[in-house]
């Protein structure tokens, strides 16, 4: 299909260059009911085809590999996440943004030449309020420790749940639940687009944290400044209020309710 339909092919290329994974592109096409949709496998095959190699699309793929690994060599981690925690079991009030205190989480990755350092991206679904945290690597316990430290000061009703994808950095979710009592939910395998709020936020933050940035050069003060810039910017989806304003209002309401 990508060979036959040039407009679809160009749209796929643009989204890959923008940082979308093949799964995100294919999932978004299904979500938007695109008249001509393609699977993530088709997108991968195109990226690794002679045409894809000619424009070096592989450089923009999640693993930045010039050659794709054989299918049997690709890791599977689905067994580490209980079926009871599948996103399809998440209450409607979460999916429909009717209840405050539900978050989405992801890791922002950088070029492999900079090592394994990364940034945790955490976003509250109703207010779009964002928090960013530095990580030296992708080990799950330190990542979860960062989330605990960031959220533990909030009242429980402001940290009801967190939705993750199935990356290995999130396998220590029982520790997170035990530490702060937040429910965890997980996207379907290879479907990070199901947590679209944090994916959208990651796209916005690339203005300051591009893939070419050395994450070890980013300080905590830098991340606080980026948070403030995003959280103090009016959003159309919030009626042109800022995420900080909405978060503060919802948080105060929860504290009054709890008190």
Notable traits:
259 residues; five-stranded mixed beta sheet
Please explain how this structure is put together.
The chain has 259 residues and is of the alpha/beta class. It has two domains: 6-65; 84-258, Ribonuclease H-like superfamily/Ribonuclease H (Nucleotidyltransferase, domain 5, 2-Layer Sandwich). The protein has ten helices and five strands; from the N terminus they run αααααβββαβαβααα. The chain has helices spanning 6-18, 22-31, 40-47, 50-54, 92-95, 140-151, 173-180, 196-205, 220-231, 243-258; strands at 102-108, 118-124, 130-135, 161-164, 183-186. It has a five-stranded mixed β-sheet with strand order 3-2-1-4-5, sandwiched between helices. It is globular.
Task: Present the secondary structure layout.
Elements: H1 6-18, H2 22-31, H3 40-47, H4 50-54, H5 92-95, E1 102-108, E2 118-124, E3 130-135, H6 140-151, E4 161-164, H7 173-180, E5 183-186, H8 196-205, H9 220-231, H10 243-258
Parallel strand pairs: 1-4, 4-5
Antiparallel strand pairs: 1-2, 2-3
Helix pairs in contact: 2-3, 6-7
Class of secondary structure makeup: alpha/beta
Name the CATH class of the largest domain.
Answer: Alpha Beta
What CATH architecture label of the largest domain applies?
2-Layer Sandwich
CATH superfamily of the largest domain: Ribonuclease H-like superfamily/Ribonuclease H
Secondary-structure element sequence?
HHHHHEEEHEHEHHH
Overall number of structural domains: 2
User: What would you report as the Rg, rounded to the nearest angstrom?
Assistant: 19 Å
């Amino acid at each position: 299909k990508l060979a036959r339909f040039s407009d679809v092919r160009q749209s796929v290329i643009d989204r890959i260059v923008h940082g979308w994974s093949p799964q995100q592109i294919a999932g978004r096409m299904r979500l938007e009911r695109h008249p001509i949709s393609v699977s993530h496998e088709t997108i991968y095959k195109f990226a690794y085809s002679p045409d894809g190699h000619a424009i070096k699309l592989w450089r923009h793929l999640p693993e930045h590999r010039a050659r794709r690994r054989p299918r049997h060599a690709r890791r599977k981690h689905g067994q580490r996440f209980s079926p009871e925690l599948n996103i399809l079991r998440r209450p409607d009030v979460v999916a429909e943004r009717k209840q405050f205190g539900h978050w989405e989480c992801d890791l922002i990755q950088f070029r492999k030449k900079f090592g394994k350092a990364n940034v945790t991206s955490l976003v509250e679904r109703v207010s779009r309020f964002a928090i960013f945290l530095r990580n030296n690597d992708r080990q799950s316990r330190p990542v979860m420790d960062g989330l605990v430290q960031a959220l533990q000061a909030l009242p429980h009703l402001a940290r009801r749940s967190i939705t993750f994808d199935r990356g290995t950095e999130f396998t220590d979710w029982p520790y997170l639940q035990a530490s702060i009592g937040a429910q965890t939910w997980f996207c379907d395998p290879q479907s990070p687009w199901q947590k679209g709020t944090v994916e959208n936020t990651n796209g916005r933050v690339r203005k300051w944290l591009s893939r070419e940035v050395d994450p070890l050069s980013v300080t905590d003060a830098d991340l606080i400044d980026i948070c403030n810039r995003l959280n103090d910017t009016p959003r159309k989806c919030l009626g042109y209020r800022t995420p900080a304003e909405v978060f503060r209002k919802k948080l105060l309401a929860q504290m009054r309710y709890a008190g």
